[in-house]
Design goal:
With 449 residues, the chain is α/β, with parallel strands linked by helices. It has two domains: 126 residues, Alpha-Beta Complex (Aspartate Aminotransferase, domain 1), CATH 3.90.1150; 273 residues, Aspartate Aminotransferase, domain 2. The chain has a seven-stranded mixed β-sheet, sandwiched between helices. It has a four-stranded mixed β-sheet with strand order 1-2-3-15. Helix 3 packs antiparallel against helix 11 and helix 8 runs parallel beside helix 9.
């Protein structure tokens, strides 16, 4: 007998007692309840009471082509009929081979070898370990340090945290984390008056050059989020910084790791953000949208030079890193279906048209007295709100739900990162309702009597 579907209140009570939710202080849910989701379709999520919410953040930046996408659904059903999983150590299967070949064709030239994991942080771990191990295998065992940008975010495993510069995530585990250096971020919000984004990026690149000059003998790699630093509040910068970083890393024999976990798969307007700088990194990390938001999968792509440094008879010189679900066939099939949609539907061209439309209708929002630093890269928009509320992020999230929107502000930064299937009516809804809640967020808090 099929149990009756729960309502919102029932599922909330059960979830709070049994599930330890991520990135949360669980006690806060006593007064700020979880949002129970029953189903999704397209850009919309629906709760158990039938209320709907436009998923303007793609469910933590992963959903590209809408919830319950028919093409991805069909691919997964087909794959379930043949092979759900087999270990990738000592075995292989068609979906992982096809996906690796497709990615090799699409990625910046020279990235021909794919190593798989299940999530973004694990991909970062692979890239960091592979870089340091390369230098060890090639006679430079002292090159074990890494650098990243200020305010960077690369994940929350211990290795990834060592190159993450967000105190909220790092501080509790500082005793467990190996300290690494950071260099000035090219975040264009910090440009001086009259200084262009390009000029500021080049000024920041000079700081990177100075650091490499002094420390390259110990440095294995420089890791960077190309074009947009997500957790830094969607910090956007000019692609000239990537070009200079590529030149400098090559000059000083330091690997360049491009963390495209959030910004890859078309999010910045090109399939890979690195394309806009015309560069090939030594490592390219992908996850999130690679499966269209369906299943956990990540991949690290690298060059033949790095691959060959591990290709030997000695087991200890091999890359001994594994995950039980590495290259899972279902996840790979979802990724292949996602790439098929890109190819068949001319997604990048359509996204440019959608971005232009949203920018045109957003003029009243952009010009609102409380909106600062409006910015856009591809299918990412962000702005700060000058608000008197100290609990801005929580208040904005709550008001957004009342306006049929799912927004997840970063401090006082509101951002849009919607699924690519969003249409003009949904964009109208997103902009109009956001304008309404920004006006609400400008109102002075009521004094307590």
């Amino acid at each position: 007998m099929t149990p009756a579907a729960p309502n919102n209140a029932e599922l909330l009570a059960r979830s709070h007692s049994a599930v330890w939710h991520p990135c949360s202080q669980m006690k806060h849910y006593e007064t700020f309840p979880l949002l129970p989701i029953a189903r999704g379709k397209g850009v919309w999520l629906y709760d158990y009471d039938g209320d709907r919410y436009l998923d303007a953040v793609s469910s933590w930046w992963v959903n590209l082509f809408g919830h319950s996408n028919p093409a991805i659904n069909a691919a997964l059903v087909s794959q379930l009929e043949t092979l759900e999983h087999v270990m990738l150590a000592g075995f292989t299967h068609e979906p992982v081979v096809r996906l690796s070949e497709r990615l090799r064709e699409l990625a910046p030239p020279g990235l021909g070898h794919c190593s798989y994991a299940s999530d973004g942080a694990s991909a970062i771990e692979i890239a960091l370990k592979m870089s340091a191990h390369f230098w060890r295998n090639t006679g430079h065992p002292h090159k074990t340090q890494f650098i990243s940008l200020q305010n960077s975010y690369h994940g929350e495993t211990l290795g990834a945290l060592s190159v993450t510069d967000v105190a909220l995530f790092r501080d509790a585990y500082s005793a467990l984390i190996r300290s690494q250096a950071t260099v000035m971020s090219p975040d264009s919000r910090h440009a001086a008056a009259g200084e262009t984004a390009e000029d500021y990026a080049l000024r920041c690149a000079e700081v990177l050059e100075s650091h490499l000059q002094h420390h390259h003998a110990q440095l294995a790699a420089f890791i960077i989020e190309p074009l947009v630093q997500g957790a830094a509040g969607m910090a956007m910068y000019h692609p000239v910084y990537l070009r200079r970083a590529r030149e400098l890393c090559r000059q000083y024999a330091v690997h360049l790791i491009a963390d495209e976990i959030a910004v890859g798969m078309g999010r910045t307007g090109t399939l890979f953000a690195c394309e806009q700088a015309g560069i090939t990194p030594d490592f390219l990390c992908l996850s999130k949208g690679i499966t269209g938001g369906y299943l956990p999968l990540s991949v690290v792509m690298t060059t033949d030079e790095i691959y060959q440094a591990f290709y030997t008879d000695e087991t200890t010189r091999g890359f001994l890193h594994s995950h039980s679900y590495t290259g899972n066939p279902l996840a790979c099939r979802a990724a292949l279906a996602t790439l098929d949609i890109f190819a068949q539907d001319d997604v990048l061209s359509q996204n440019r048209q959608k971005a232009a439309y949203l920018n045109s209708i957003a003029q009243p929002l952009r010009e609102h007295r409380a909106v600062k630093n409006w910015r856009n890269t591809g299918m990412i928009w962000a702005f700060e709100v000058d608000s008197p509320h100290h609990d801005f992020a929580q208040r904005c999230f709550s008001l957004a739900l009342q306006n049929e929107l799912l927004l997840r502000p970063i401090a006082n930064t509101v951002y849009f990162m919607p699924p690519y299937v969003i249409g003009e009516p949904e964009m109208d809804h997103l902009v109009q309702r956001t304008l309404h809640l920004v006006e609400q967020l400008c109102q002075q808090p009521q004094s307590k009597t």
